[in-house]
Amino acid sequence: MSITQSLSTPLSSSSSTFLAPSTFNPRSQVTLPVKSLGVCKCIAAPQEADTAYKTKVSRNGNIAKLQAGYLFPEIARRRNAHLLKYPDAKVISLGIGDTTEPIPDAITSAMSKRSHALSTVEGYSGYGAEQGERPLRSAIASTFYRDLGIEDDDIFVSDGAKCDISRLQIVFGSKIKMAVQDPSYPAYVDSSVIMGQTGYYQKDVEKFANIEYMRCNPENGFFPDLSSISRPDIIFFCSPNNPTGAAATREQLTQLVKFAKDNGSIIIFDSAYAMYISGDNPRSIFEIPGAKEVALEVSSFSKYAGFTGVRLGWTVIPKQLLFSDGFPVAKDFNRIVCTCFNGASNISQAGGLACLSPDGLKAMQDVIGFYKENTNIIVETFDSLGFKVYGGKDAPYVWVHFPGRNSWDVFAEILEKTHVVTTPGSGFGPGGEGFVRVSAFGHRENVLEACRRFKELYK
Amino acid sequence: MYKTSIFSYTLNTNVLQPKMVVARLKNPSPRIGHCTKVPRNSNMEKLQHGYLFPEIERHEHMHLQKYPHANIIDLGIGDTTEPLPTMVTSSMVDFVRGLSTSKGYKGYGPEQGEQALRKAIADVYYKDLGIKPTEVFVSDGAQCDITRLQLLMGPNLKIAVQDPSFPAYIDSSVIIGQAGDFVDKVGKYKNIEYMKCGPQTNFFPDLHKASRPELIFFCSPNNPTGHAATRKQLEQLVDFAKVNGSIIIFDSAYSAYITDDSPKSIFEIPGAREVAIEVSSFSKFAGFTGVRLGWTVVPEELLYSNGFPVVHDFNRIMCTCFNGASNIAQAGGLACLSPEGFRAVKSLINYYMENASILVNALSSLGLTVYGGKNAPYVWVHFPGSKSWDVFAEILEKTHIITVPGSGFGPGGEEYIRVSAFGQRDSIIEASERLKYLLYQEEN
């Protein structure tokens, strides 16, 4: 991404720059002169606090437990600070997993049509069904869950997986315990903290109390040793995995489903990257017999259709998924969707429907193929430099091992010396320490250029 | 007056009262298959029945099954009906087309909203009120923001609501764990302060009676009563909040409908920046009920008891539990706030307010006591001595018009019906005729 493009991209944390807490990231030994650049105006403890009027409303203790800003605005903050330091640098972003390629015409033309229709009498529509427009729900069921026994009304359309994760946390409430892969997408842990399910952060182990962190590393093939974990109520499982790129095998998922069944747990299966799978690893948890009684699935159009800004995703909750008293989970999720949400944008939904037409599917496959090719280039680069490289086959993420090194240090070094933004592994949990995630979303020339710079740095 | 006699006949109201739609499985059928060991969230169990508006839809659906050829007129759920102005949709079309080009493609936007839109909201809606773009958080709508604000505030506090009020305030409070148990006898949740708002007190709560809640939800112009609080009333409210250390969550979703000089924003009141958050929406302002766009203003001066700025934590929620409103919707929102766009959406608002006038005139001419309809697209009709679900049912049965029973908005709504003014002109006129006919019929 050229610098002008970087700058014209909305600075995704322009307001969070001044909102970053002053106690940011105790793990890092890197001294980034952020404050001296005047970028980070920390108002966590305003000077005038003593004389300023304070309400008598206590700050939510759950939010106070969070250690720092959400990971990706932090990465953006660092990127922006770097841009200020090196205004002429051509910063390339392989950090935040943001799609870069234009959305195919087959899909945008449907959204144009819907947008235009909203200004006509016949085409205007107001509130849509909170669960999503029926044709879209139907198309999702038949495209992704054909022959898996998932019906239209098991599908809940949303404005994205990240939002659904929080809505699911609201459904389950504060009194449940969850397990996550370690490393994992930060929204699972952060939403759990916010919801009040966790204890305090324990600095020595870099974990929140009352969350089960299931280590996933090269030694265990990125699948947790389920025999070593205590019973959680909810298990977040992402496959293909963000950040490691590992796609669980049928056998592994069968184990997971059995574990959930034996323990009475519920799996929240995040399949946002399923279409990136190269081989025949399962693309949905529902491919595993018995999964409908123990799992629900979250997915998204973000990484398939470049809908990161358009906002569209879905959650599947089978009718057979029941709470301990026999009450169907889907009914409570429906209540949340009706009360705490008001449906995904109708224009985005029109786009989603087009994505699932034959032309749309082909167009999505092409774009996914493009990013997969980027992934190959990145994998080959780090391979050739002698690094141990994981992922990249079934996901648009490359998980590079830097044994013995602090991942924020490596992040900073790569940024400083090559002007390439990556994501430090420990941002995804203590199990990510010693790794860096390189995202494969980018224009081809930027990916090639980034790889050229990596070769230069690590030759 | 005849009005009480109309509704004195017996109707099988058991059928039509909002049922607990599987709120509790009192006698669970023998379990076939696996039950997990995950306990159901006890807060969800506390909800008494389905959310109000899907319940209304359910009744509509049942009615249609009974009368498949009925020409139903929906004056229930406040759903906009008129097409969007072409200059707004063409902005969205242009933006969408741009997404197919290298130059125009956009991925993730800032979670807080596009800078240009935040600025436009601050400039157009909060002109001269000192609201900065950085205090404006764009969202996918007020209903969603209300829950995010509850998530922000957490379970350990007490809310106050107007009674009657938009049901999402109470329901979200129950869900998040603030509300305590429901007390059947009074029809209220134990830990929520219900501030009665009726004609006797000029639709403003008697604040002397209120205990000290941490959060006060206040909607003006009000859904469902249509009352726009006066400057004096809002000054009292801000004062009350200041004295008690409470935070006001001010819902101004209908402010564009104000026709007199009632304040359009809580920030018109001096001192409000230290005690209030404002939530608003493009839904009723611009017909964006399906497009999904709204915003919340959190001033920098709003501090928790320990001095920590609320805006900081709200930003954290927006970054973690949300990922920005659709960029296409935001492009449309920006067009609405241009001078030309603003004029165009204003004319739609005028159209709905003319509808409201027609309804007010029709209902008043029948001798009914009618409130609202002047500063909001809702007409609040009094049926003294009647149960609102009965009136709702009678109107639906006899005129095929859907309204909303006042008690759906809280016990303070009993005896009232909310009639929404959203609709095509000929439907509104037809509805007025049917209502007149029904009520004349009953008289004779």
TrEMBL record, chain A:
<dbReference type="InterPro" id="IPR019942">
    <property type="entry name" value="DapL/ALD1"/>
</dbReference>
<comment type="similarity">
    <text>Belongs to the class-I pyridoxal-phosphate-dependent aminotransferase family. LL-diaminopimelate aminotransferase subfamily.</text>
</comment>
<dbReference type="GO" id="GO:0008483">
    <property type="term" value="F:transaminase activity"/>
</dbReference>
<dbReference type="Pfam" id="PF00155">
    <property type="entry name" value="Aminotran_1_2"/>
</dbReference>
<dbReference type="InterPro" id="IPR015421">
    <property type="entry name" value="PyrdxlP-dep_Trfase_major"/>
</dbReference>
<keyword id="KW-0663">Pyridoxal phosphate</keyword>
<keyword id="KW-0808">Transferase</keyword>
<feature type="domain" description="Aminotransferase class I/classII large">
    <location>
        <begin position="90"/>
        <end position="454"/>
    </location>
</feature>
<dbReference type="GO" id="GO:0030170">
    <property type="term" value="F:pyridoxal phosphate binding"/>
</dbReference>
<keyword id="KW-0032">Aminotransferase</keyword>
<dbReference type="InterPro" id="IPR015424">
    <property type="entry name" value="PyrdxlP-dep_Trfase"/>
</dbReference>
<dbReference type="GO" id="GO:0009862">
    <property type="term" value="P:systemic acquired resistance, salicylic acid mediated signaling pathway"/>
</dbReference>
<dbReference type="InterPro" id="IPR015422">
    <property type="entry name" value="PyrdxlP-dep_Trfase_small"/>
</dbReference>
<protein>
    <submittedName>
        <fullName>LL-diaminopimelate aminotransferase, chloroplastic</fullName>
    </submittedName>
</protein>
<dbReference type="InterPro" id="IPR004839">
    <property type="entry name" value="Aminotransferase_I/II_large"/>
</dbReference>
From TrEMBL, chain B:
<dbReference type="Pfam" id="PF00155">
    <property type="entry name" value="Aminotran_1_2"/>
</dbReference>
<keyword id="KW-0808">Transferase</keyword>
<dbReference type="GO" id="GO:0030170">
    <property type="term" value="F:pyridoxal phosphate binding"/>
</dbReference>
<dbReference type="GO" id="GO:0009862">
    <property type="term" value="P:systemic acquired resistance, salicylic acid mediated signaling pathway"/>
</dbReference>
<keyword id="KW-0663">Pyridoxal phosphate</keyword>
<dbReference type="InterPro" id="IPR015422">
    <property type="entry name" value="PyrdxlP-dep_Trfase_small"/>
</dbReference>
<keyword id="KW-0032">Aminotransferase</keyword>
<protein>
    <submittedName>
        <fullName>Aminotransferase ALD1, chloroplastic-like</fullName>
    </submittedName>
</protein>
<dbReference type="InterPro" id="IPR015421">
    <property type="entry name" value="PyrdxlP-dep_Trfase_major"/>
</dbReference>
<comment type="similarity">
    <text>Belongs to the class-I pyridoxal-phosphate-dependent aminotransferase family. LL-diaminopimelate aminotransferase subfamily.</text>
</comment>
<feature type="domain" description="Aminotransferase class I/classII large">
    <location>
        <begin position="71"/>
        <end position="426"/>
    </location>
</feature>
<dbReference type="InterPro" id="IPR004839">
    <property type="entry name" value="Aminotransferase_I/II_large"/>
</dbReference>
<dbReference type="InterPro" id="IPR019942">
    <property type="entry name" value="DapL/ALD1"/>
</dbReference>
<dbReference type="InterPro" id="IPR015424">
    <property type="entry name" value="PyrdxlP-dep_Trfase"/>
</dbReference>
<dbReference type="GO" id="GO:0008483">
    <property type="term" value="F:transaminase activity"/>
</dbReference>
